[in-house]
Amino acid sequence: MQMTANLHRKRLDFAKKSARAWQNYFNAHGLLPNITLSPEQISVVQQEEDQMLINGSAGSGKSLTLLYKLLKVMEQENEPKRILYCSFNTTLIEDARKRIEQSHKFHEIKEKHTLHMKTFHNMAAETLREIGFKNAEFLRINLENLRRYEDAITRRTIALVDSFMESEEYKKLPPEQKLYKTHAGTFLMDEILWMKANGFITEESYYNCERVGRGNNPRLTKEQRRTIFKLYEKYHELLKKQFHDHLDLEDYALLLLKHYEDIPESLKYDYIFVDEVQDLQAMQLKALVGLVKKSIVVSGDPKQRIYKRSPFSYRELGLHIEGRKTRNLRTNYRSTKQIMKLASSLQFLDEENDRFDDQRFVREGKKPSIYYFQHSKELNHHLVKQIKTIQKNDPDSTIAVIHRHDADKHGIYQCPVFGELNRNFDVVTTSQYGKRFDLNKQKKPIFFTDAFSVKGLEFDYVFLIHFDRNHYPSKKRIEELDKRAGDNKNSDSYNADYDAILNDEKKVLYVAITRAKKEVQLMYTGKNFRSISPFIRDFYKEDYDAVGFDSSIYSK
């Protein structure tokens, strides 16, 4: 009798679940032009959780799956909902907006809800202004603006350190709390921003924290942290008195968390969707978890993390995504098998290196090519010729040229490659992407972009210039490490920091290569072919075509 009752209850539960699943079934067919989701992706779209992580390597359709989950919510929620779709950088938000605008279904249902597609910073600025922080500013998040922002902070911290070192207060400090010469303005800027990004804004929390992601050079003792915290407090006094209560970008999340009780329910979100979650700072993600009322879905790929790391786990930030709440997309729908074979051969120190054999591919194509040119004019000529051929043979295609110029906008416009491209084609830079890059145009402009701003985007053809030892890895980052290390360059701590930079720089290269759907070419110039990036040693010579140099010298 008991067994019969249990069986009846199980059948009833199954029937209820089946009915609920059928009721919530979402027809994803034909929502976006030329897109057909795989069964794997559809399964993720249909699954409903209060918190969820979509993991996947580059090209696995994470962003697309996230957009479909957004459309599912918008169609199935009958009552008006407040929804946020956010990411770290502006270009990715602009691209998501362009893609969803292509959906007829979206235009049918968009009036039903309030949808915000914004970067974290602009969402936070809007919310903070609503609760009285009129000094919260809107900012276009791209490499150029981030560099300008960091330069301004560096100037302030250099002046602050110099002034403090000369003060009576500093001279009276115990010897163990005094700083080294290498604890200069740039170091202090990085340290202060890292403290804020991870919420270590009290003396004790900073004193006791693990400085994950901050490296070992210059060395910083526990007692010296007391002095750094004094400088942190003086830095905030400086902002208040001399810079009209200016807010650093890292302050936005901290203010949302501090004033959480002041945020009315009407400003919180029923649903939040986060793309490229690995690029958000810890406190930004924690703030988002606090702002959601019903469900938050995040997607990301740790191999594409090219911003600073954090000591926190997802659980510590309020995301409980164990078990079935984490879904992994393993099939690559973007890049050809040949492109991903090259990218996957890059060896990372801090992430599990995916076995290439474990990945699934639906596209085959040409092997990637690596070109050496002695002079930049030769590279420019080759680039123009290649693009003209593509536009003739594949006129609907999208093309990106990925550079590693410093983020000065005027410097980009004056560089020879950009000038040559601009004379021959319609060229769009990162700052123009939202307004001028039209997915519906047959002949699309050439996208000239840095490797940071291209994250999350995809193009049929990618030309990666600057594949030389000065740009992969960034010579500037190595020089900054050397400056911080001082006389400490032969130490284990220096070697660990150097390896960490190489690891980050490989991720930049991985992101750049994996933007390509059909073909990718890497190019470099120099007095001789030996100026190539040392990262070529991670590649197998049979995985690419070498032009202008002998690949057997370098490759495995």
Annotation keywords:
556 residues; alpha/beta; Rossmann fold; 7-stranded parallel sheet; single chain; 3 domains
Folded structure, characterized:
The protein has three domains: 2-135 and 252-332, Rossmann fold (3-Layer(aba) Sandwich); 143-246, no CATH class; 337-553, P-loop containing nucleotide triphosphate hydrolases (Rossmann fold, 3-Layer(aba) Sandwich), CATH 3.40.50.300. The chain contains 20 helices and 15 strands. The chain has helices spanning 2-23, 39-46, 62-76, 90-101, 104-109, 120-130, 143-165, 168-171, 185-197, 203-208, 222-242, 249-258, 282-291, 337-344, 376-393, 409-414, 416-424, 433-436, 475-485, 492-513; strands at residues 51-56, 82-87, 114-119, 269-274, 292-300, 326-329, 331-332, 360-361, 369-373, 399-403, 427-429, 446-450, 459-464, 516-525, 545-547. The strands form three sheets. Strands 11-12-10-13-14-9-15 form a seven-stranded parallel β-sheet, with helices on one face. β11, α18 (433-436) and β12 (446-450) form a beta-alpha-beta unit.
Outline of the structure:
InterPro entries: DNA_helicase_UvrD-like_C, DNA_helicase_UvrD/REP, P-loop_NTPase, UvrD-like_ATP-bd. By secondary structure, the protein is α/β, with parallel strands linked by helices.
List the helices and strands and how they pair.
Elements: H1 2-23, H2 39-46, E1 51-56, H3 62-76, E2 82-87, H4 90-101, H5 104-109, E3 114-119, H6 120-130, H7 143-165, H8 168-171, H9 185-197, H10 203-208, H11 222-242, H12 249-258, E4 269-274, H13 282-291, E5 292-300, E6 326-329, E7 331-332, H14 337-344, E8 360-361, E9 369-373, H15 376-393, E10 399-403, H16 409-414, H17 416-424, E11 427-429, H18 433-436, E12 446-450, E13 459-464, H19 475-485, H20 492-513, E14 516-525, E15 545-547
Parallel strand pairs: 1-5, 1-6, 2-3, 2-4, 4-5, 7-8, 9-14, 9-15, 10-12, 10-13, 11-12, 13-14
